[in-house]
Amino acid sequence: MDQELLRLSPSSVTDFKSCPQLFKYRAIERLPEPVSGPAARGSLIHAVLERLFAEAAPTRTPERAVELLDALWDQVRSEPEFRPDGMGSVEEDAWLAETKNLLANYFKLEDPRTLNASRLEWWIEYELSDLQLRGIIDRLEERRDGSWVLTDYKTGRVPGESRELAAFFGLRFYALVCWRAFGVIPKEIRLVYLADPVVLTLNPHERMLVAFERQMSALGAAVKRSITTGDWRTRPSPFCMSCSFQNRCPAWAEVQATEQTETDA
Fold first, then answer.
1. Cα 181 to Cα 71, 129, 132, 150, 175, distances in angstroms
2. Which of 84, 124, 150, 207 is the most buried (most CB within 10 A)?
3. Which CATH architecture has domain 117-229?
């Protein structure tokens, strides 16, 4: 990683906050990971919705969305970078059926025929001193009054009430970049949860984004300290059970050693 200009995205920031060691494996060493079912499902649904909004408004129907999903999956189903690790034909049928259920839920929340997406899968970036913030916004709508609305699709479950603000982390990140790079504070940021289904909304304001910018600067400084010192702390949590790097993680090795000692005793 370029130590002069630290590049962070919402996902890499989330990795560092949850476990610096995980950030090291993904962002510094860039180790390969198996493709999980949920990750593959999310990628496929995002690709379908991107293509759906690129078509003429009257054709953005549930039926057309399923056609796009089937066509896209046929193209990539044999590719290891897209196919969930270890998925056989029986698992594939169940996985695909659940993916179609989530896609159907989308139409319970919005009618894409009535929406005008200004940008889809929009790459944005901005430099704060020696820190670059960057990433991809699922959808931007520019309304007639000039205001911006950012939308992010989520295929997981909606968070509890106490976790709602944290769930907006990625969109607050993008709202900050929009403000600094283009001079526009989005009027609304939206999380479209397909599993439940429900839409969560938040209205960003300058005070919120200034505080968030300070948080990013402090976090960037923490990442740079870890790069300089080589100190990548582990933060064991229930998420460790699904981590791809258990066989490398020192914290997981300690857990196994403890369990072995207890077994031997």
1. 36, 13, 11, 15, 10
2. 150
3. Alpha-Beta Complex (3.90)
